[in-house]
Amino acid sequence: MSIKSFHPPQRILMGPGPSDVSPRVLEALSRPTIGHLDPVFVSLMDEMKVLLKYAFQTGNELTMPVSAPGSAGMETCFVNLVEPGDKVIVCQNGVFGARMKENVERCGGIAVMVQDDWGRAVDPQKLEDALKANPDTRVVAFVHAETSTGAQSDAQTLVAIAHKYHCLTIVDAITSLGGTPLKVDEWNIDAVYSGTQKCLSCTPGLSPVSFSAQAQEKIKNRKTKVQSWFMDLNLVMGYWGGATKRAYHHTAPINALYGLHEALVILQEEGLQNAWARHQKNHLALRAGMEAMGLKFVVPEHERLPQLNAISVPEGVDEAAVRTILLSDYNLEIGAGLGAMAGKVWRIGLMGHASNPRNVRLCLGALDDVLGRLNAPIHHGVAVDAANQQLVD
Amino acid sequence: MSIKSFHPPQRILMGPGPSDVSPRVLEALSRPTIGHLDPVFVSLMDEMKVLLKYAFQTGNELTMPVSAPGSAGMETCFVNLVEPGDKVIVCQNGVFGARMKENVERCGGIAVMVQDDWGRAVDPQKLEDALKANPDTRVVAFVHAETSTGAQSDAQTLVAIAHKYHCLTIVDAITSLGGTPLKVDEWNIDAVYSGTQKCLSCTPGLSPVSFSAQAQEKIKNRKTKVQSWFMDLNLVMGYWGGATKRAYHHTAPINALYGLHEALVILQEEGLQNAWARHQKNHLALRAGMEAMGLKFVVPEHERLPQLNAISVPEGVDEAAVRTILLSDYNLEIGAGLGAMAGKVWRIGLMGHASNPRNVRLCLGALDDVLGRLNAPIHHGVAVDAANQQLVD
Fold first, then answer.
1. Are residues A263 and A307 in the same domain?
2. Which of A59, A77, A57, A58 is nearest to A68 (CA)?
């Protein structure tokens, strides 16, 4: 046995995440490790909270990164806010709603599913109907930006309906944070979780979360212990919280946090509004190119996420072959369909650092080339020009 | 608000972990991010399993890093192997046994505690007595290398006793992996978890685990679902396992895995036996210096961990003041006591990359200086020489 150092190829990441990571973030990862109880590290944690509050647009004191990927952020929300016997309405319009149901049930809760078509936003009326039919519901959960389909739901309206029926809300903002408006305080979201590897353009592995005062109240007054020791916010807060003396809980992933700090500094420098506008602009350019080619979006225009573009695979085209050639000939990664959409769509991310005109042009040009080679029924040689026009406008 | 990039100081990490990280590992972290489903990344995962099997000395197919810190590795073992109503004997001789108890109870299990003095190894006779008194026990759990006290238990003997009573075994090897002999197959350990930030000298944030065929059998035949979705090995195996088609579970922490891969390549280059011998040699040098100064070890000689040295604070000395001066004047981090040992001991790590003669000399010289300034009752100016003699021998 003799395994050598691993040197990855230089990809362009335009799938559903991870997205291209800024060189500044990569460099930050390699800074010297310090102890997780070092006073200098504690100052980093304080700054991290300020930066995350800005990204989430919240004043919530309980705002921090969970030391594990987005699915652990999701689980942190559910295990802390759902107690055995609690009824939870889950609005599902893609893969991640199903994962929420799993979480509810593994907490001993009762999941009531409200189904919407994949590729569409969650229908507020269906949620209200479900709440009327289930007045004992405690929590409403939904995905703000469905990574599996590219659909965006109206989080503000859904939260308002949930609150009318005295429910707490859990919102999946994995793909929305930093890419499309997300206003935790203005929308009165109670619990929200995200990932670092989407529109923050950081490496995967951490999950920013934020909890309202109402959510914290519920956690403090639980009748049962949180079933996860690692994710128990009553304990985590002793470390990340504003306590005068921080209590050791677990060893924080120091260098990963350097990376997230740098990604959030970059976001602060650009400004959240500017980042949202940039994602929208590059999305419109990609759309112009796709439409010029004759390719179609899965999601209706007013429900589309700018950072995740689900495109229908043209009839007769082997979608996996296209992705394989893009990767081998262009070092370009785009995403496959997930769940019910497997084989039917491509998911093209324009997230964070990767949301830029160069990537829009590269992706369109590469798709034009590869689809041409495979004799797909598209209009050739027009996509990049169409995008350029949009970028100039 | 205007927060700047974070530039940590260059510390020397001789606490209970994180330990000094090799520059090779830091550089690996900053390599370009690729997708978690990229074929090249899949080859990295395959290599990672081979390297971890070597480090654990096992042929277990279910050997991989959990995408979260060591406490999540611990929880992964308990939530998968303990079902509601299962009786679990936990041998406690430090802080981490108490955390095991928490895990058992949060899984709905019944924890039977076997207590040993802090700073001592687990007594095999007490375990056997407890098993005789509790013939319905399903699992025995203990800490191989207690990070809170520096005591090492005889894992092979404890596992053999547990098996005599038909119990599965969960072994905490957070601080032992790579630093002191740990032979998962030869000792017949069923489930073992470790951390990356101790003797592997990698950054914190991942938890290598390994499960025997018997443990896997138990997991496959559970009557209840694993309460954690994120940690459910039935699902994780679809991604990390040998399946022909890997199923997406969660987004792996790509760059953190680059770091662990590099740390394991370094371990393979040195050779496990050589790494163990190096830890022992540097421990003996530190011991010679400490004893020359008149400082005393907490743990009896035959139960000491070479990589974690718990030293009694001399009477009248303000232990926190010593650590503060070491950090400010020498950039040297050593650890405080934890739990019942808070205020009474220092924990000096010689782990992984940090286990080297330069650090031994630096630590002894710095302690000599600082204790002198504080008028502590020690023998001055002899420690480094004593260590040097040991290093030459």
1. no
2. A77
**Residue A34 in domain:** yes
- Strand A12-14, strand A332-336: pairing: parallel
Taking CA–CA distances from A263, the nearest residue in chain B reads B5
Q: Are residues B252 and B276 in the same domain?
A: no
Pair B241, B354 in one domain: no
* Domain assignment of residue B11, yes or no: no
Tell me if A228 and B226 make a contact (CB, 8 A cut-off).
no
Residue at B13 is within a domain: no
pLDDT tens-place string over residues B80-92: 999 999 999 999 9
Both A163 and A189 in one domain: the answer is yes
For residues B203 and B315, membership in a common domain is answered with no
Closest to A35 (Cβ–Cβ): which among B18, B205, B338?
A: B18
CATH at residue B378: 3.90.1150.10
Q: Which residue of B has its CA nearest to A53?
A: B1
Read off the pLDDT of residues A289-343 as tens digits, 9 standing for 90 and up.
Answer: 999 999 999 999 999 999 999 999 999 999 999 999 999 999 999 999 998 899 9
What single-letter DSSP state applies at residue B61?
S
Smallest CA–CA distance, residue B328 to chain A, in Å, is 11
Mean pLDDT of the residues in chain B: 96
pTM above 0.90, yes or no: yes
